[in-house]
Amino acid sequence: NFDNMPELRYKYAYFIVLALMGTLAISMLTCFKFKRWL
Predict the structure, then answer these.
(1) 20 pLDDT above the threshold of 80
(2) Rounded to two decimals, what is the model's pTM?
(3) What is the structure's pLDDT at 1?
(4) In angstroms, what CA-CA distances link 13 with 3, 19, 24, 32, 35?
(5) Cα–Cα distance between 12 and 38 in angstroms, integer?
(6) Cβ(15)–Cβ(24) under 8 Å?
(7) What residues contact 6, with CB distance under 8 A and at least 6 apart?
(8) What span, in angstroms and rounded, lies between the C-alpha atoms of 22 and 2?
(9) For the chain, which terminal residue's Cβ has fewer other Cβ atoms within 10 angstroms, N or C?
C-alpha cells in the first residue's frame, strides 16, 4: 500500500500539495469577502 504514496515517489509532492491547498483557501476567503458573504 505504501507504493502508491506520492510523497515517496516525488521529492516535493508534499509541499506542492500544501501550497495548492493554501492558495485555494486564501483565494476562497478573498472571493467570499469580495462578495460580502463573510
Answers:
(1) yes
(2) 0.70
(3) 64
(4) 14, 10, 17, 29, 33
(5) 34
(6) no
(7) 13, 14, 17
(8) 26
(9) N
Residue count (the chain)? 38
Torsional sign, CA 8, 12, 17, 18 = positive
- Which residues, including other chains, have CB under 8 Å from residue 2's CB and lie 6 or more apart? 8
Dig out the grid coordinates for 29 from the structure: 476567503
CA–CA dist 4, 21 (Å, integer): 21
Q: Which of 32, 34, 7, 2 is nearest to 18 (CA)?
A: 7
Cell 463573510 sits on residue: 38
Q: How many CA atoms lie within 13 A of 7 on its CB side?
A: 6
